Amino acid sequence: MAKEHRVISADSHVNPLPTIFQEYTPAKFRDRAPRVEQRGDRQVMVFDGRESGATGLSSIAGTKYKDYKIQAKTFDVGRKGGFDPHARVEDMDLDSVDAEVLYGGTVNLQTDDRDLRVALMQAYNDWLADFCKAYPDRLVGIAEIPTYDTDLAIAEATRIRKNGLRGVLIPAIPGIEGSWSTPADRPYTDSWYDPLWSCLADLEMPAHMHLGARPLTNGLASNLIVSVTCNKAMMMEPIASLIASGALERHPKLKIVSVESGIGWMAFTVPWMDKVWEKHRYWTESPLKETPSFYFHRQVLGTFIEDEVGVRERHVIGVENIMWSTDYPHADSTWPHSQQAIEADFQGVPEDEKRQIIGGNAARLYGL
Predict the structure, then answer these.
(1) For the chain, what percent of residues have pLDDT higher than 90?
(2) Using one digit for the tens of pLDDT, what is the confidence trace for 50-59?
(3) Selection from 108, 115, 112 nearest residue 156 by Cα
(4) For all residues of the chain together, what is the average pLDDT?
(5) What angle do CA 298, 303, 306 make, to 5 degrees?
(6) Does residue 5 contact residue 357 with C-beta atoms inside 8 Å?
(7) Calpha distance 96→359 (Å, rounded)
(8) What is the pLDDT of residues 169-209, one digit of tens each?
(9) Up-side HSE of residue 266: CA atoms within 13 Å toward CB?
(10) Are 24 and 126 in contact (CB under 8 A)?
(11) Fewer beta carbons under 10 A from the terminal one: N or C of the chain?
(12) Are residues 62 and 335 in contact, defined by beta-carbon separation less than 8 angstroms?
């Protein structure tokens, strides 16, 4: 009998060591791939003429808040489950989590050479596929694709689907992540993306947007408290773009996932989109045949870590549109106290709705 996944984190992370690129990047690009070098007692990653150190916040789950540090001396610091699948499953068992959806990637490896960018994306995707193959019924990998070129993006999505990955990552705000994404003049309202949406729908690979939005005022993007406070509600833009443009109407099987953005703001957004549409649908010649909330409920899901407001307003958002997560091993993670976090957020929630949110929706979306 197939295992029933009762608790699934729909947003967790891997932290591949930079050394993977020397192993997985094609030989043609290997001498230009990231490499690790020693600087005294510190490791640095060398890439494209730049050096960068390890960050502690990406693998600090379970650490006391007062001991948080943004810098680390080595890349293997913190929870080993970020790069070792066996250590990963041990930590999942400790947290009573049955399966996890995994994000990571190469978004920080910026270069103007797009051929090199694609090679690094493919190297990461292949490493992630191997990571997940160690426990295929428990680890669900989300691939990177080069969204600045729909032909390349389609080819990579098709390739990596055959290798076991089950979704793709796209930038939340096109252009904001530089050469990783589409130029800023290609918003998600543009039908230029239609071939990609068709491909992803046919492959049954959801498109995931993992934050990425930033405060608008110059200088605030580097203020972590302001940025992390604001960036969740900023995911309203790409969701509204995909709905209002008719993209979800044209591609009814395409699924969109707003990741690590929380869900409380969705309780305002879903009915508000309908009000805006009703007032302005005629003079704007809206392409929608149904209300915006119809497409949201049919095709959009959101993940949250701790969000008592969103859970309370789950019927406005849609019980079937919400997925719980741990964010392991990042600084905001509930690990190793996720069960206590669930109990705190789900007080008074009927058991069938709780089961759907903490695992059932993710199991259905990813075929677990």
Answers:
(1) 72
(2) 988 877 667 7
(3) 115
(4) 91
(5) 140
(6) no
(7) 12
(8) 998 888 755 444 555 568 999 999 999 999 999 999 999 99
(9) 34
(10) yes
(11) N
(12) yes
Contact (Cβ atoms closer than 8 angstroms) between residue 272 and residue 244: no
Burial 334-348 (b: 16+ CB within 10 A, else e): bbbebeebbeebbee
Angle among Cα 277, 280, 281 to the nearest 5 degrees reads 65
In DSSP terms, which residues pair with 324 in a beta bridge?
304
The pLDDT score that the predictor gives to residue 24 is: 97
Residue 336: is the preceding peptide bond cis (ω within 30°)? yes
Type of residue at 133: K
Structure tokens at 104: 């990571």
The number of angstroms, rounded, from the C-alpha of 124 to the middle of its chain's C-alpha atoms is 15
**Stretch 302-310: mean pLDDT, rounded?**
96
Residues β-bridged to residue 152: none
Residue labelled with tokens 């089961």? 355
Q: What is the pLDDT of residue 60?
A: 67
Count of CB atoms situated within 10 Å of the CB of 207: 24
The per-residue pLDDT for range 198-250, each reduced to its tens digit, is: 999 999 999 999 875 666 788 887 787 888 788 788 899 999 999 999 999 99
The DSSP secondary structure of 146-165, one letter per residue, reads -TTSHHHHHHHHHHHHHTT-
Per residue in 77-93, pLDDT (tens digit) is 878 999 999 999 999 99
Q: Is the pLDDT of residue 62 over 80?
A: no
Closest CA to 310 of 329, 292, 297, 323: 323
Q: Which of 230, 133, 115, 223 is nearest to 172 (CA)?
A: 230
Displacement of CA 240 from its chain's centroid (Å): 18
Cα separation values, 70 from 64, 110, 126, 229, 248, Å: 14, 21, 28, 18, 39
**The sheet that has 35-39: what strands, in order across it?**
35-39, 42-47, 50-55, 71-72
DSSP state of 4: P
Alpha helices (runs of H) in 17-102, residue ranges in sequence order: 20-24, 27-30, 85-94
- Euclidean distance between CA atoms 64 and 291, whole angstroms: 46
- Report the pLDDT value the prediction gives residue 52, as an integer from 0 to 100: 85
